[in-house]
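Support case: magnesium ion complex. Customer-provided input:
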Amino acid sequence: MNRHGFDDPVQYLKGVGPQRAARLKRAGIESVVDLLYYFPKRYEDRRTPTAVSQMAQGQTVWVRGRVLGGSFQRPRKGLSVTKLALESQSGVVYATWFNQPHVHRQLTPGKEVVVVGRCDRRFRSVEIAVSEHELVGQGRLLSAARIVPIYALTEGLNQKTIRSLTDHALSVYLDQIVEFLPPDVLNRYVLPRIRTALREMHYPSSLEDAAVARRRFVCEECLLFQLALAKMRTSGQQDKPFTHGTDGNRISALIRSLPFTLTPSQRQVWSEISQDMQRSRPMRRLLQGDVGSGKTIIALLALVKATEAGLQGALMAPTEVLAEQHYTKAKQVLNSLDLRVELLLGGQTPRERTRILENLLSGNAELVIGTHALIQDSVQFASLGLVVIDEQHRFGVRQRMVLQDKGLAVDSLVMTATPIPRTLALTLYGDLDVSVIDELPPGRYPVNTHFVYPARLPKVYEFVGREVAAGRQAYIVCPLVEESEQLENESATTLYEQLRVGPFRAIRLGLLHGRMPGDEKNRVITAFRHGAIDVLVSTTVVEVGVDVPNATVMMVMDAERFGLAQLHQLRGRVGRGATQSWCILVGQPGTEEARQRLETITSTNDGFKLAETDLRLRGPGEFLGTRQAGLPGFKVTDLINDWEYMEQMRREAIGILEHDPDLCERDHQPLTAKLEPLIIKLSS
Ligand code: ADP
Ligand code: MG
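Agent response - structure generated as follows:
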């Protein structure tokens, strides 16, 4: 058996039999350490008893007194009432219990007791409806005469039980618990040692001490997490079997051929990426940039740089529409460079597919752009050197890994326009380096966003008509139907039919939805891009990435059904040219939350601000959606408010591993045991 006992099963504690152990297990408590890390969700300051004369109606009070006598009654079937008179220092009070018949047997006259409960003043007497009581003289008081921990309860466990268990565990095990955080970290952040921190977390001497103890556990959690991420980032990582030189002719030719100059921000991130690629350690980089900030060209630069070293590059996008757009754009810009680019999608003919796969395997094609189709087993490369994942929040981490594993120690660049608040970026992408494009290309107007009720639709259609007459284009996005893509497509089709014979009779109208065959989709989006369609009625397939600068209106139907991040993405489809653009949200918010969402989106264009709000409104789980599942449960860390600690501990973790990559130094040895289970959890 482990001499230190910290990992002892909870049954080793006095008072825990099989039944209680089962209940504790349901609350996630299996060992003593689990119990000690089962922290209170809040505290109540019960340091001083309430004087009887001060007790106010409805207030929660506590008092310590001697039982004078009392009564036990069963006024009707299923109800028993115990009422005891207690003599306290500040006068007599009456305490009542409902349906707890054992109480009057336990609390016989002369016994001293503490009661906590809601106060009911009747005439001159005071009655307390007891929620907790505790006999005095049986060890230290846990439910009163102190700052009292309030734990989250699960079935079959009450406050009293958990308190007596944590108190007992502290008294038996505390001396055996060994500090494992490095002294440097403890000192630098003035954190209490583990024994003090555990004690103060459960039974704090003051609320300030509880806060200090909490800070220790936040730092502990963040440090372990960041160490685990950093270890994952570097473990099993081979150096690249190839080398990149500094940017060559192809890169400079590409930059020269662009119809615009790169923004300072784009130049900055490009130099970060380019330098990353030149290192022998494979690049693991996240490129963040708000919608329309110009990430695509950066991806193309990276892909071209890979070819300069004689390697192949792959770009994966979440939708066919986007993959095709990237392919078209890549062909345009790479035209003069004499590079061979392929497009790989799901629905291609077997012949076409075979041709593409052969070209990739033989090295005939230098670049490939595609959808999820790229991660199939049959896709193999002659010499893959770089993978780029666009709109990475639409993919899981595993999909990135699968694509990456098609080469040896390949560089990887993941891009996202969903601005992820700092804390979450550090949490989710702690294993990635981050570059940010923090400005839009010059000459852009901020999109004007309005919310209107459906009654105003005729006016909105008129407005769209005027924009079209002025040579602009518009999107109309139809209700999101989470449950069924089929229904979503039908609603788009229905609206399209209505508009075609109604308000947009005289306008070139197009329809786009997910179930259309690939080449049909392509035909429609190409026509829209070339201005052969004025107004595109679409499902959310245009949500990400689509880039048609001449479009100036984004209309969203039933806007209340969309999340903030989605609305922001949709809005990002316009405002890409040099004229004023509009985003018109049509809807009927049915809930307060929906109303807040629409108000937020109309009040700001700042994606980061929106993401923060979104995170606050929905919490991290919902915000990230199911695809990003795999965040470890943080017991104390609040991912929204504790980002500074996350950042500090990230730096600490990197510093520790830089000097001591295998955690061999004496101060670091104890960390290894803590890290192993965490790494397993994170990489599964
Ligand atoms: P996103 O970051 O949303 O993927 P895109 O890469 O689609 O943005 O770029 C949006 C639009 O801005 C495209 O039409 C692109 O050609 C254009 N663009 C990119 N960089 C610049 C720049 N430096 N100056 C002007 N326009 C640019
Ligand atoms: Mg994009």
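The first helix runs from residue 18 to 26.

Case will auto-close in a few days if no follow-up is received.
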